[in-house]
Structures
1.
Amino acid sequence: MPTYSYIAENPQEGCLRCRKGFDLRRPIDREPLTHCPLCRRPVRKVPTGFSVPRITRPVSVTDAKKAGFTILEKRCDGSYEKL
Ligand SMILES: [Zn+2]
């Protein structure tokens, strides 16, 4: 039986259980759960392996500098300017 992860559609409204997400074992031929079994609020399925949502930010010039990288920008005349 596969295990599915669910999390409240609106984390502000969910109960203690679905606000943080929960796992549920469910037969594969069963309809996907749409509401929390405890508080009946709408929940959505979280893709397996992604139970903790990760927000990846693109590295900005400032972050790269903080990390010790030297940012070089190519100028029109072909030279590089150190930022
Ligand atoms: Zn709930």
2.
Amino acid sequence: MEKDFTQLDAIIAKYQGKPEMLIPLLQETQHLLGYLGKETMRYLAQKTGIPAAEIYGVATFYSHFSLEPKGKHIIKVCDGTACHVRGSSKIIDALRKELALEGKQITTDDRLFTLEIVSCLGACGLAPVLVIDEHVHGQISPEAAQKLIAAIAKEEESNA
Ligand code: FES
């Protein structure tokens, strides 16, 4: 089925003829659709005349852009210096295991969770820090992190 890009057309119209505004165009597009999928980028290229390779290049260069749909719950684990020395990599490993994420996968197959690694959450005094859907969890252990995820998954299951 053809995707309905009506709202996207309005955004494109705003930036039409301004190839130097590619980043704001991509930001607004991601804000609207949640991520920049291949089909979307092809559509943008076709409508704006900006080469698809250029759009793809910008979208992959900036970590702010997401090329895959994100999960319902966003987990951000800090791996900045303060958190790293306090064992953030063990938390990351434990969460990847809990979420059954493989290779470069960051979103679970059921699209419930996306795991992002960030460089500082501005709460170094609470290291190691983890944020789930804007809730900050400080001095977290790998086991406690797994429990938090399991509790959300259970709640989602009972709401399903
Ligand atoms: S290094 Fe983790 S919150 Fe700053």
